[in-house]
């Protein structure tokens, strides 16, 4: 066992285990020597008592254990010895079956891969957009999503504070199939440094926050926003001069009404003052290529099912997918187009 720093621990544990089992055996053997005493008339004598008496006449007797009971105990000892020969338990000794937790896990994973691999792999060479309209593939994609992604993005994929909504058409990093796939494979790490000091006073922060609100037409103080506009230059490096964001940096578009951290003035000021650091974990080592392909299609499909021009048959397929909230609005174009 690699967890042991030296063989000493392994040996010590093996010795302690051995002694414990032996001690149990000795204890049993010593106890089995207590016999029922037989009187001269051939009948068992009344059992000895320990001398403890309760409630006037209730006495604790010292009877030997029944034989069958004793043998059960011996059996457990034999069993434990057999167990420790075939399974790991004596220090670092691996057991004749060479069983291990990791081995069992890997075997299960391999069996799973053999059973389900072909199911996933059949889509690997199909274009993402086509996989996205395959009802069976979407069903698989949804299961994978529930297993691997829902804990952060929600089972409806609509996200939450800090976790982007994947069903809309607003993207931090871009919504093209290749970009989504890259996000899943490599992960993402959105970083906005604290900008309060760069802006100046808390009033400056408030002014810029009002300017940010004005960009999306949200309720704001126009005078403060006008004052903040001049300071937005330090933000433009990432969010663009027009505030429309930069997908290469994952800097969000500030002119729409989609907010990763909430659209209130307090949230915006908090972002400016404290900055943000957000991480989407890389999945290339966790999920197979085929699973990532299916998930890419599932995610792409969710945000595109509402507006992509699809053929009539694709539209029918999309409408069958109950989990697609916007499926009813699918735009249908003639198949010949
Ligand atoms: C541990 C939480 C977590 C898990 C698990 C997770 N994500 Fe994410 N994901 C995030 C966060 C946080 C972001 C935003 C990163 C940022 O702001 O830079 C993100 C971003 C994304 C984006 C980019 C969105 C955009 O607007 O560009 C996509 C696509 C995405 N996740 C899909 C998935 C899929 C599919 C899975 C399952 C394989 C998944 N995520 C699993 C936390 C998670
Ligand atoms: C170095 C690049 C950079 C600069 C400079 C920067 N930002 Fe950001 N900003 C980002 C990134 C990246 C995110 C997304 C963080 C995340 O993924 O969690 C972000 C997020 C935000 C958000 C949250 C948006 C939402 O949807 O909730 C606001 C608001 C914001 N920035 C405003 C500003 C303002 C105002 C300034 C100037 C004072 C500024 N940023 C300067 C990179 C930057």
Automatic annotation (TrEMBL):
Entry's SUPFAM superfamilies? Cytochrome c (SSF46626)
Sorted keywords for this record are:
Cell inner membrane, Cell membrane, Electron transport, Heme, Hydrogen ion transport, Ion transport, Iron, Membrane, Metal-binding, Oxidoreductase, Repeat, Respiratory chain, Transmembrane, Transmembrane helix, Transport
InterPro entries per the record?
CcoP_N (IPR032858), CcoP_N_sf (IPR038414), Cyt_c-like_dom (IPR009056), Cyt_c-like_dom_sf (IPR036909), Cyt_c_oxidase_cbb3_su3 (IPR004678), Cytochrome_c_Oxidase_Subunit (IPR050597)
Q: What is its main location?
A: membrane
Cellular localisation: Cell inner membrane
Query: Cofactors per UniProt?
Result: heme c
Q: Where is the signal peptide?
A: none
Domain spans labelled Cytochrome c: 136-216, 223-303
The family database entries (Pfam families) matched by this protein are listed as: Cytochrome_CBB3, FixP_N
Q: Can you tell me where the transmembrane regions are?
A: 12-30, 68-87
Q: In which pathway does it act?
A: Energy metabolism; oxidative phosphorylation
Note on cofactor: Binds 2 heme C groups per subunit.
Known function? C-type cytochrome. Part of the cbb3-type cytochrome c oxidase complex.
Quaternary structure (record): Component of the cbb3-type cytochrome c oxidase.
Q: Which family does it belong to?
A: Belongs to the CcoP / FixP family.
Cited NCBIfam families = ccoP
Q: PANTHER family from the xrefs?
A: CBB3-TYPE CYTOCHROME C OXIDASE SUBUNIT FIXP (PTHR33751)
Q: What is this protein called?
A: Cbb3-type cytochrome c oxidase subunit
Q: Which organism is it from?
A: Undibacterium seohonense
Q: Provide the taxonomic classification.
A: Bacteria, Pseudomonadati, Pseudomonadota, Betaproteobacteria, Burkholderiales
What is the primary gene name for this protein?
ccoP
